[in-house]
């Protein structure tokens, strides 16, 4: 088969149910549950400390927001072709005919909400454009580090012909999830100063709004590559398009954050940069 023929080989999209006999090794399943979900539980005492000792209620609202945000997991699993073993602890809930393991809600608490909160604290401290991109890269790598042990040990599976897999992990999820976590921090950075009193409850919606918006902007080419019949090369190009969209979103965030950082540090200089 020539290279051109390989590129043009049709890839048939299939959305398949979780096989009834798909079960993880018991030790692997339990260890991955602790690895992926344990951080979300461990962060709760810290969030209570922040509120009781420092009057900082944001971490508690973000914990609630992570639990709410986890409700979109079955939609992403359905579009992203992910199977969880039938013997993982749970389910926490069921959606799209998928059993969502008990590890997912606390996983969203830590890896979506609290990672987004970390990005927010970095933005508040002031970031350059380069600093925003470094923050995004570090966040994306947390997703890779968290997920790859699970796919390598088949604690869960991304099935089908997903592009750019390493140890069963499609790298697209690294940049897609990394961008969504950055967007959580960015939205929190934008709205938190304006939410006072009873309006603080809106902080609980930051994670699901930002993550949903991020996926709407960046993930549609990748989901097309998995769910549309097309030539093999088209699936790879669409996956790379999702990366390009992520970089565009990060650049947009970086422009706004860096501009506000300059304005906060030197108002006079910021005024000089504004058009007449």
TrEMBL record:
It comes from the Bacteria. The chain crosses the membrane at residues 32-51, 58-76, 96-120, 127-146, 166-190, 202-223, 235-258. Keywords: Membrane, Transmembrane, Transmembrane helix. This is Carotenoid biosynthesis protein.
């Amino acid at each position: 088969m020539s290279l051109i023929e390989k590129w043009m080989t049709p890839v048939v999209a299939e959305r398949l149910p979780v096989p009834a006999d798909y079960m993880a090794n018991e030790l692997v399943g339990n260890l991955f549950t602790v690895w992926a979900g344990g951080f979300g539980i461990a962060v709760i005492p810290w969030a209570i400390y922040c509120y009781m000792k420092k009057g900082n209620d944001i971490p508690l609202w973000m914990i609630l927001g992570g639990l709410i945000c986890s409700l979109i997991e079955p939609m992403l699993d359905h579009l992203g072709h992910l199977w969880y073993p039938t013997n993982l602890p749970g389910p926490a809930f069921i959606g799209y005919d998928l059993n969502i393991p008990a590890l997912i809600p606390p996983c969203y608490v830590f890896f979506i909400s609290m990672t987004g909160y970390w990005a927010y604290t970095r933005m508040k401290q002031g970031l350059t454009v380069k600093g925003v991109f470094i923050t995004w890269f570090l966040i994306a790598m947390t997703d890779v580090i968290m997920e790859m042990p699970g796919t390598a040990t088949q604690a869960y599976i991304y099935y089908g012909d997903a592009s750019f897999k390493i140890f069963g992990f499609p790298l697209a999820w690294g940049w897609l999830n990394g961008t969504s976590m950055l967007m959580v921090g960015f939205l929190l950075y934008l709205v938190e100063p304006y939410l006072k009193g009873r309006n603080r409850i809106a902080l609980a919606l930051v994670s699901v709004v930002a993550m949903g918006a991020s996926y709407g902007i960046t993930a549609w080419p990748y989901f097309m590559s998995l769910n549309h019949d097309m030539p093999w090369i088209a699936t790879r190009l669409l996956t790379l398009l999702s990366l390009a969209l992520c970089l565009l979103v990060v650049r947009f965030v970086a422009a706004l954050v860096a501009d506000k950082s300059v304005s906060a540090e030197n108002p006079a200089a910021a005024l000089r940069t504004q058009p007449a």
